[in-house]
Write a structure and sequence with these properties.
Number of strands: 4
Distance between the termini: 18 Å
Oligomer: single chain
Strand order of the largest sheet: 2-3-1-4
Radius of gyration: 14 Å
Structural class: alpha+beta
Shape: globular
Helix content: 25-40%
Number of helices: 3
Length: 99
């Protein structure tokens, strides 16, 4: 399993404009084969900070995601939405253990 955690930052006053673009990205990503989880969440204390969580079954699924048209569209929207800062980290994980 592959996990991606991180953040993007956009001007807080652009959040309403960005919301439908982010929603399209999340919905399309969740529909991809091998996507186990994909979410964006606004930080409660920092309105311009969006926290990203992704879980992928295996590397081929993630590689296909990186080549997807919706990811290209999402990235192309960044300059217009003021998204500049991006910090994402990929982790490899074993089997999930319920706690």
């Amino acid at each position: 399993m592959l996990l991606i955690f991180g953040t993007i930052r956009l001007p807080p006053d652009r959040l309403e404009e960005a919301r439908p673009v982010m929603e399209r990205m999340v919905r399309a990503s969740r529909a991809e084969d091998g996507c186990l989880e994909y979410s964006y969440a606004q930080d409660v204390l920092d309105p311009g900070l969006i926290r990203i969580t992704e879980m992928w079954r295996a590397r081929p699924a993630l590689d296909a995601h990186f080549r997807s048209p919706h990811l290209a569209d999402w990235r192309a929207s960044w300059p217009g939405l003021g998204i500049g800062e991006r910090n994402l980290v990929l982790y490899e994980a074993g089997e999930a253990i319920p706690t």
